[in-house]
Design brief:
Strand content: 15-25%
Number of helices: 14
Distance between the termini: 58 Å
Helix content: 25-40%
CATH topology of the largest domain: Spore Coat Polysaccharide Biosynthesis Protein SpsA, Chain A
Structural class: alpha/beta
Number of strands: 21
Bound molecules: uridine 5'-triphosphate
Radius of gyration: 24 Å
CATH superfamily of the largest domain: Spore Coat Polysaccharide Biosynthesis Protein SpsA, Chain A
Strand order of the largest sheet: 4-3-2-10-14-11-19
Shape: globular
CATH class of the largest domain: Alpha Beta
Length: about 475
């Protein structure tokens, strides 16, 4: 039973912060609803909320730092210069060694709501592969299994969910036999949430006894990795490096020896992969140096004038975009959590279903409130060292964000086929093409067959002749 004193304490707290309306329906709530509501209120960080509520309408602005914005330097694509290649050879060797010693863990963030895709299950269960229709989770699971057998090492997989999709995600993994991994090598944990606000700074109620909340963004992973015990699990296993990616990228190269090796050689704490943007307005974060620290500024916060700046050769000054692929030291996550981990909040204006003061359900047709999120890349400037490796879009980045059009399932499938074709052609295999040059077949390469281009060369005798219109699955 909720004690009178704990109710009174919460009542006082809410009054102080101008959020008393949260208890408007207290008299109508049953015992367990009351307990849950108090539980939700007690974990809120009111010092931060007061500040947020006061500044909800303030647009983020770069005016303070614009003068010092400088593009961040990066390691160029492989093969670009001889001196660099020597370092890359060393890095690849080290990366392979670290993977075989079991020092690298895989970590996918899968707690998002995937509203743009309009898929009513966890996004990782979205079928995407061009021939077998494998889901995103299956592709990752098979890749990790393949890496594990290639390097003879257990490669644990950490998966972050949110309260909105945790139970479903667990069930998907269970019913799919953990995609070939051992159950004990799969660690599924939940991220935290943040309350939703009205434009006036009031916390919204989803129900009479429940605050409207949403996941706290991919930045929440830094706290959740620690709080869930994932970092402790890593320590027990000897995992020192976390390979981070987003659930909606089927082309990700999860265990990339070059990236892991460069990060380790340079003693970085968190590193990033980048690619050259398709144009100034591409919707990816921009790599900059702010006060000498590698920093990513989200496209929505990046002024058009800065995005449009060009070098004398016509290339963009800020040409490197973030593809949300990082190597993070487990020790860095621990360090952040034992100090004061405080990532800035980013605001998103959204349609938020809630109940109004008379207890009526409101399903807004127009945006009516604000959701808050934290972003992983805001941790970059907190690192003592952070490197960037430039990579090729066609090899590593095919985001499945939308149902149709740009960055959709359709474009991702096309990119998966295109990468398979390029791997085969680079090994000397003939792939049928139409008179206009476009590919005239559908090809899917299973991770067990090849994890990278070079793996194809050892399997040439297993590749059948490919005829126009064929559907080919190489496994
Ligand atoms: P997005 O920014 O694309 O968001 O997430 P989303 O929620 O998946 O999709 P929309 O915006 O509703 O359409 C990028 C990655 O970060 C993860 C997502 O699961 C995805 O892998 N993410 C996002 C989280 O894990 N937690 C969050 O709170 C937000």
């Amino acid at each position: 039973m909720v004690s009178q004193s704990s109710f009174e304490n919460v009542e006082k707290l809410l009054k102080k912060h101008n959020q008393s309306h949260i208890l408007s329906f207290w008299g109508e709530l049953g015992e367990s609803e009351r307990k849950n509501l108090l539980g939700q209120i007690q974990v809120l960080d009111f010092a931060k909320i007061a500040d947020l509520a006061a500044n909800l309408s303030t647009e983020s602005s770069l005016s303070d730092i614009d003068a010092e914005l400088v593009p961040a330097g990066s390691y160029g694509p492989i093969g670009a210069d001889a001196e660099q290649n020597l370092k890359y050879d060393k890095a690849i060797e080290l990366g392979k060694k670290l993977i075989s010693e079991g020092k690298v863990g895989a970590f996918v963030v899968a707690g998002g709501q995937g509203t743009r895709l309009g898929f009513d299950r966890p996004k990782g269960d979205f079928p995407i592969s061009p021939v077998k229709n494998k889901t995103l989770f299956r592709i990752f699971g098979e890749s990790i299994t393949a890496v594990s057998s290639k390097y003879g090492a257990a490669c644990p997989w950490y998966i972050m969910t949110s309260p909105m999709n945790h139970a479903d995600t667990r069930e998907i993994f269970r019913s799919n036999g953990y995609y070939g991994l051992r159950e004990r090598d799969v660690f599924i944990f939940e991220q935290g949430t943040l309350p939703n606000f009205s434009f006036e700074g009031k916390i919204l109620l989803a129900e009479k006894g429940r605050i409207a909340c949403s996941p706290d963004g991919h930045g929440g992973s830094l706290k959740a990795l620690y709080k869930s015990g994932a970092v402790d699990d890593m320590k027990k296993r000897g995992v020192e490096f976390i390979s981070y990616w987003q659930v909606d990228n089927p082309l990700v190269n999860i265990f990339d020896p070059l990236f892991i090796g460069l990060h380790a050689l340079d003693e970085a704490e968190i590193s990033s992969k980048a690619l050259v943007k398709t144009g100034p307005m591409e919707k990816v974060g921009n790599f900059c140096l702010v006060d000498d620290k590698v920093t990513v500024i989200e496209y929505s916060d990046f002024p058009d004038e800065v995005a449009e700046r060009r070098n004398p050769d016509g290339s963009l000054v800020f040409q490197l975009g973030s593809i949300a692929i990082h190597i993070i030291n487990a020790g860095f996550v621990e360090k952040l959590n034992t100090g004061v981990l405080s990532l800035p909040f980013h605001r998103a204006v959204k349609k938020i279903p809630h109940i109004d003061q008379s207890g009526r359900c409101v399903e807004p047709a127009e945006p009516n409130g604000i959701k808050l999120e934290t972003f992983i890349f805001d941790a970059l400037p907190m690192a003592s060292k952070s490197i960037i490796l430039e990579t090729e879009r066609s090899e590593e980045f095919a985001p499945v964000k939308n149902a149709t059009g740009v960055d959709s399932a359709e474009t991702a499938r096309e990119m998966m086929i295109a990468r398979a074709v390029s791997w085969l052609e680079s090994a000397g295999i003939t792939v049928p093409r139409k008179p206009d040059g476009s590919v005239d077949c559908v090809i899917e390469i299973a991770p067990s067959f090849a994890l990278e281009k070079d793996d194809i060369k050892a399997k040439l005798n297993q590749i059948p002749e490919i005829k126009p219109g064929d559907e080919v699955y190489l496994a």
